[in-house]
Amino acid sequence: MIASFWPIFFVDVGGSLLMIVVSFLCIGLVRRLRRIDPQNVIWAYLFWLCMGLAGFAVSRSAGHIIKQALVIAGQKEVWADIRPFSGAVNTFMFVFLASVTLFFERVWKIYEQIATDKAALQRAHSELLNLNQNLEHIVSERSRALAVSERQYRRIFEVSRDMVAVVGSEGRIRDINPAGCRMLGFEADSETPKGEPFQAFFEQPAEWEQLLASLTRQGFVLNSEVVLRRRNGAGMHALISAGLDQEAGGKDLSIHLQVRDIQERHQMQEQMAQADRLASIGQLSSGVAHEINNPLGIILGYTQLMLRSEPSDSVRFKDLKTIEKHVRHCKSIVEDLLNFARRSEPKKERVDIHRTIEDVLGFIRQNSGSSRIDFQTDFDRRIPPVVLDEKKIKQVLINLLMNARHAVGARGTVKVSTARHASGGLEILVADDGHGIDEKDLKHIFDPFFTTKPTGEGTGLGLAVSYGIIKKHGGEIRVESKPGEGSTFTIVLPAQEKRAGEIE
After folding, report:
1. Which of 49, 99, 204, 208 shows its CA 20 to 30 Å from the CA of 277?
2. Can you give the pTM of this predicted structure?
3. CATH at residue 215
4. Which residue has the higher pLDDT, 285 or 103?
5. In total, how many domains does the chain have?
6. How far, in Å, CA of 311 to CA of 358, rounded?
7. 455 pLDDT more than 70
């Protein structure tokens, strides 16, 4: 009996102690694994499982050790009393282990779902990174394209020969290119019409209102002809194209304008129309003059024959002199008509323009009829001799100076000046401080038979003939005048090519 007890004792007690030692070693190993990977739920499960096994090992071992001690002490009855408690502890530990297993089985499902979601999140994050990189690439490309487009727009804006301007809804200029500044008379780089109302540069404010009405109605305007007023007050014909631009949010409107200067084209059209009128009238005048000239010559001849046989103190003599006077006047008109109609090519030669002007001024002074008219000169003596038809140019100068003499009346100033034109040609100015010309008459001043003089004092052909002469020379003639301030006629003759050996 004793021989069989001790092996059982040692196995029971030793096995219990060994189970305790192994369970705690497992706890230590699992703790190291948790430190390495604290997010892994498996290590958490194993940790609590080892804790439950360690508790079970301690409970079972303690029960067996107490049992063997009571058996050795002969107190089996005591063990019979406490045995149910030992069994209850063991049962509790098994229930704990089962609970841990069931709990972590649920946790594992949650962990798998979390792992699945984490993987999906990582994939989404990766896709988002790729999309973000693509978006950054697209934004970068669009930014470069926008920068290129902006540079191109600014280049077009800066170098355009037409005015390009942006006008706010309040009607003030927000932006304008250099060509627009020059077009409005702002030459210096520091000068700009920005901030000024665009309406102020319209000759007729009603044209601006019509432009706004068209923009409001259809959103754009194409090639609307208007007259703008430069900074110095000079008028300028222009074509305007405009469109409305609504900024982001729809709260602010701006007007984008393109303005083309057609002043030169308008002048050319007027000159062509003038040339057509002159050609038509010239043909008519030539026929009329030839038909009238011969009868007038016959009347004048018979009148002079009759005067020879009449006493100078007779009434008949006075009547014949009156007839002679009016016939001569009619012949001068006919001669003007013939000169206007012939339009012969100028016979050009190299002449000193200043000597020519002085010759004409000498003639005008002798025939001005008033010593109170001050004839002044301002010559640029650096201008060399020019090639022109001196006789015809004298005719133009005589006409202009006689008109100036009549404009100043009994007292006034008439000034003749010469200068180099910007084109390199010759510029002659005839200015007076007389009564001036009404604005409504300026556009007709070079029309044949148009005159502001009283009836019988002018034929209205002088300026028309002068216009034709200057055009035959390849030049231009224009007038500027304000009522009460006088008039200035400007003749521009083209530059002549220098001959070999000539020095300017």
Report:
1. 204
2. 0.42
3. 3.30.450.20
4. 103
5. 4
6. 44
7. no
Residues of the domain holding 291: 268-342
Q: Coil, strand, or helix at residue 165? A: strand
**b/e code 356-367 from CB counts within 10 Å (16+ = b):** bbeebbeebeee
- Of 342, 375, 403, which residue constitutes the final position of a domain? 342
Which two three-digit tokens encode residue 451?
């005159």
> Which 3-state string (H, E, C) describes 375-425?
EEEECCCCCCCEEECHHHHHHHHHHHHHHHHHHHCCCEEEEEEEEECCCCC
Residue scoring higher pLDDT (336 or 322): 322
Please state, in angstroms and as integers, the Cα–Cα distance from residue 61 to each residue in 12, 48, 78, 277, 498, following that order.
Answer: 8, 20, 17, 137, 134
79 shares a domain with 183 = no
Which residues lie below 8 Å from residue 245, measured CB to CB, with a gap of 6+? 253, 254, 255, 256
Structure tokens given for 203:
């000759």
Q: How much is the pLDDT for 500?
A: 39
H/E run at residue 66: helix 41-72
Helix (H) or strand (E) holding 256: strand 253-261
Structure confidence at residue 490 (pLDDT): 93
pLDDT, the chain, mean: 76
Beta bridge partners of 228: 202, 236
Q: How high is the pLDDT of residue 182?
A: 83
Whether residue 14 is found in the same domain as residue 94: yes
CB contact burial 197-210 (16+ within 10 A = b; e otherwise)? ebeebbbeeebbee
Predicted confidence (pLDDT) per residue in 242-295, tens digit: 888 766 445 667 888 888 887 767 666 665 565 555 555 555 555 566 567 677
Nearest one of 139, 54, 41 to 93, comparing CA atoms: 54
486 and 363 within one domain: yes
Residue 501 counted as domain residue: no
Q: What is the pLDDT, as a whole number, of residue 501?
A: 39
> What digits encode the pLDDT tens for the residues 178-210?
888 888 888 756 678 888 888 888 888 888 888
Q: Name the residue among 404, 380, 362, 391 with its Cα closest to residue 473.
A: 391
pLDDT tens profile 396-440: 898 888 888 888 887 889 999 999 888 788 999 999 998 888 888
What 8-state DSSP symbol labels residue 1? -
| Nearest partner of 45 among 105, 93, 96, judged by Cα | 105
CA distance 201 to 16: 112
Res 340: pLDDT? 57
DSSP H or E segment with residue 167: strand 163-168
Distant-in-sequence contacts of 91-100, Cβ < 8 A, 24+ apart: 93/52, 93/55, 93/56, 93/59, 94/56, 96/52, 96/55, 97/49, 97/52, 97/53, 97/56, 100/45, 100/48, 100/49, 100/52
